[in-house]
Amino acid sequence: MKELVDALFRNVPTGVGAHRRDLRLSAPELRKILMEGARAAVSSGRGEAADLDHIEEGGTIPGADPDLVSERAVERGRPQLGTLGSGNHFLEVDRVDEIFHEEAARAFGLAMGQVAFVIHTGSRGLGYQVCDDFLQGMLRAAAKYGIDLPDRQLCCAPIRSEEGKRYLAAMAAAANFAFANRQVIAHYLRETLAKDLGIPPREHRVSTVYDVCHNIAKMESHEVDGRQRRLCVHRKGATRAFPPGHPQTPSAYRAVGQPVLIPGDMGRYSYVLAGTAKAYRETWGSSCHGAGRRLSRAEAKRTSRGRPIVRELEDRGIIVRSAGMATLLEEVPEAYKDVSEVVEVVERAGISRKVARLVPMGVIKG
């Protein structure tokens, strides 16, 4: 495990400003990624075509316009494809240690004792810059259209306004970069198994269970007051949880519902759930996306300063590597709620059902 975690830490650049020296995209290559997302990664040889069926929207959010992504955002994104961010972004090596729903677990390809990799990262500096670029414009738009903001961070514009349409197109481009980023990280993960550990693809058989957004606004059709309406569904700190039978639930999972991925903290466990019909009715097909913080980053750093976090986790059988100690202090397990309690609430509410629990063996943090 130590050898695997060290190899992954070498091969997947991690942390603030992390970039790849061997992959700096040309302008046409980046434009294709902003338009096509994970499909562009696959066509470049840094991904698996079979994974596309197991990615939200097939790995491509429609309506993206690369021309609305600023030059500054482009420059930040060009060297960052295939990298982890900082903060709560991570790459974990987990073990399936409990199965709650046998049929769904079989459909997802999960079994007791199996090794699973969990990748949590997004659109890196490119997406951050897109947000930053549009912030002032959206503040002006809110004033222009007479929208009263209780908090300036809620700045917005009508969807059909020029400002709203431009932001949706730029955000779709950033989301496509995120899909491609995770696909490329999965590619380097597979390469690490083959080249560093000598486990060829026919033996490791790594495939994607699911890849899903959790900070995005998307156009979807849902029932409102008894009739179908086209809506812009914002999922911020939430993740899609589509039900059995839905045409956008991958065909391999259509009998049991879309996989819902719920990370916990680096010291305890994470969960795989399945979407439900009740979630589709009551939350427009949405579930939580993680345990949620119990302590702010500043409070976590203050209360854990001086602790030997790496050794504490190793004593619990978890190998951890990080680009800096500050992130580990912010991400100590007790900074988060117990995800098992969060998942229990979600299941009792009927908006997702438990399928499997994963426990960490190796953790890479930004």
Which of globular, elongated, flat, extended, rod-shaped describes the shape?
Answer: globular
CATH fold node name of the largest domain: tRNA-splicing ligase RtcB
Q: What's the overall average pLDDT, rounded?
A: 95
Can you give the helix content as a percent range?
Answer: 25-40%
Give the class from helix and strand content and strand pairing.
alpha+beta
Helix count? 13
- Number of separate domains: 2
Low-confidence stretches: none
What is the CATH superfamily of the largest domain? tRNA-splicing ligase RtcB
**N-to-C SSE series?**
HHHHEHEHHHEEEEEHEHHEHHE
The CATH class of the largest domain is: Alpha Beta
The radius of gyration is 20 Å
Can you give a write-up of this model?
This protein has 366 residues and is an alpha+beta fold. It has 2 domains: 1-85 and 122-208, no CATH class; 87-120 and 212-366, tRNA-splicing ligase RtcB (Alpha-Beta Complex). Helix content is 37%, strand content 19%. Strands 1, 2, 6, 7, 9 and 10 form a 6-stranded mixed beta sheet that branches. Strands 3-4 form a two-stranded antiparallel sheet. The chain has a two-stranded antiparallel sheet with strand order 5-8. Helix 2 (27-36) crosses helix 7 (162-196), helix 4 runs antiparallel to helix 6 and helix 6 (124-144) packs antiparallel against helix 7. The chain is globular. The two termini are 19 Å apart. The mean pLDDT is 95.
List keywords for this structure.
single chain; 366 residues; alpha+beta; tRNA-splicing ligase RtcB; six-stranded mixed sheet; two-stranded antiparallel ribbon; 13 helices; 37% helix; 19% strand; globular
